[in-house]
Write a structure and sequence with these properties.
The structure holds two protein chains of two kinds.
Chain A lengths: L2 H38 L3 H6 L15 H9 L1 H32 L4 H13 L4 H15 L6 H27 L2 H9 L4 H12 L1 H17 L2 H6 L8 H12 L3 H36 L1
Helix pairs in contact in A: 1-13, 3-13, 4-7, 4-10, 5-7, 7-10, 8-9, 10-13, 12-13
Chain B lengths: L5 H33 L17 H8 L1 H31 L7 H9 L6 H20 L8 H30 L2 H9 L4 H12 L1 H16 L3 H7 L10 H11 L3 H28 L5
Classes of the chains: A mainly alpha, B mainly alpha.
Chain lengths: ~290, ~290
Amino acid sequence: MTENEIAARNKKIGHAITWIILLILFFCFIFPFLMVIVNVFKDKSDITRNPLSLIGATKGFTLQNFPEAMNKMNFWTVFGNSLIITVCATILTIIVSSMAAFVIVRNGRWKVCTIVFSLMIASMVIPFQVLMVPLVSVYGGTLGVLNHRLTLILMHVGFSVSMAMFMFHGAIKTNIPLELEEAATIDGCSRWTTYWRVVFPLLKPTVATVAIINTMAYWNDYLLPSLVLTKKNLYTIPIATQAFYGTYSTDIGLVMAALLLAMLPILILYVFLQRYIVQGVTAGAVKG
Amino acid sequence: MKQNTLGYKVKQYLMFAGPGTLLFLCVVIVPFIYGLYLTLTSWDGVSATKPFVGFANFASAFADGDYWSAMGRTVIYSVFAVILINIVAFALAYLVTMGIKGQNFFRAGFFVPNLIGGIVLGYVWKFVFNRAFVAIFNSTSLLSTTSGAMFCLILVSVWQYAGYMMLIYVAGFMSVSTEVKEAAMIDGCTPTQAMWNVTIPLMRSSFVQCIFLSITRCFVVYDVNLSLTNGEPFGSSVMAAMHVYNQAFTYKNYGLGQAEALILFIVCAIVGVTQVMVGKKGEVEA
């Protein structure tokens, strides 16, 4: 064997070993999900007897956990709430923060722009725990606007506007040539139409990144929604899961179904948009 | 068009940035300032009056033994979690950038825990620890012992965040050009030496960023803490954020809770910023 052949063979062996290691790690990573999937089709007594068996020993394969859990969790209402809140808040975040970024980038010398920009950057380090008590006392006690979906949507936007603005700021500064806007102005566009007809369409990649990051954040957020929405018919999926677990924690079959239902929407989305989500999250993380 | 008048500027600013600025002020800046004021009162969250007590809340916060043991626990948890998250994430990133078949599939797979919220993840793992592991290892649940509960929290956090940090390290690996590595190899470096002396120093900004993100997340961990252990057994796994929540909303000491939240924020900010400053200092470029 020549040296090259030996090197090629070693490389092949190396790749095979890596592949096996990755497979084992992958199994460890999805093991908790596998446990849920295995047990969701079993009766409560079968889960207690042996949580590892693939099919229940006494009652066998069953689907009855799903309708019961959906019913008790009020799944469709809760799912609808989560969907409305996530979609509205994401769209609003994109519109509001990209417009703010536009005026701040293009008029960097105005005092108000520098002040707001620095305030927003500085505020990104404030954890939610510092704001939750005053937030509840102002909007719950003084103004009494809690328990409205709109309140939560606007709060979500308010909390993420600084981060999103920062990302749009970078995108406009580096990717949108000023000449393009000048040309639009000469052709008779106002600032408003210039923005919507020329600048915004060019921001698509950043829009996608911001949309992905915020959709995931809003969909999964627990602490803020649990403080704002305390009525049962307004619950989002994370709050409903928590409440459900508190009431039915002993009925383990139902818990499995509820957990799977809570995970399913975003997992289905991930299957279709996996490439974009991974790209978007990477872009967001590296810039932020 | 007159572009220098104050009226024009105000109109332009409000038209584009008005809604964003308003929401930001209402949700972040006003509560932050109001929160500073709340720390000086002994408000219970219900009564109309907010008795002014000066710095008494900070004095009680410093004397609150439960708070400081929660804080100590959070520091221990964060140290272990941050180190392990970054080691695991770096190793995963290394493995999925070697150019083997199906590496995109693995990347996507390791990222899955990040898609799901901490509350749901905590309950899923609670089932795994209480039922599956008990059946596999034929022992009592780890969650029922003091140190076991801490271990479980760290394990779940590592599992949850490793995939996310992996993506940042993958981006870091991609940014180091192969030419630099090849040049080092031609100069006689072994692959291991090239890794330690070329690749890792060039990826320093990825490390700084991942460590910053994991520190700031671990310090205020709440969701997983609530669903996985809920502070049990015997309050031995109550983290600082949970203590703050209970102090304010369960025991109705809004002023004291807010003061403790502020201290948590300051500690977290100091650690995070110091880390970034130390990390940025030694950054090198190719």
